[in-house]
Amino acid sequence: MLNSLFQSTTIPVLQEVINFAQLRHTTLAGNIANMDTPGYEFRDLSVEDFQERLQQAIVQRRQSPAVRSSGEPYHSPGELTAEISDVPHTILRHDRSNVELEQQVTEMVKNQMQHNMALSIMTNQFKLLQAAISGRA
To answer: How does DSSP assign 61-85, residue by residue?
Structure first.
């Protein structure tokens, strides 16, 4: 019963956004840590690919019940996260590295803002559920 209650809210979507942001943050931090490593090519997760997968999952969820007859959600946590890939669209330096600190920090800040926003919305969702359950709306 609780599973169907959570699946009927935006919590599963927010969980996917938070998982993606955490994995992307780790990937971007690894780029900064390896910035001076000769030959290191920075990696990233495709935000556009993730957003497309998430949108498809939301459409699928609206078209059919959110929970299978077995009681399991259609998507397990982290299932929508894109694969980490090399991104060759930056300038290659003399040491064959292509990591630019300013670009990586900018992406980390944007990613952190997305993560914080999703956490804030999820916290509010849990507060609303708690109020509904306790009858103190």
So the answer is: HHHS-SB-TTS-BSS-TTTTPPPPE
**Do 42 and 98 touch, CB atoms closer than 8 A?**
yes
Q: Domain limits at 91? A: 2-134
What are the structure tokens assigned to 15, written together? Answer: 């969980």
How many CB atoms neighbour CB 16 within 10 A?
A: 22
CB atoms within 10 A of CB 80: 23
**CA terminus-to-terminus distance, the chain:** 21
6-54 pLDDT, tens digit each: 667 788 889 999 999 999 999 999 999 988 888 888 888 999 999 999 9
The total number of structural domains that make up the chain: 1
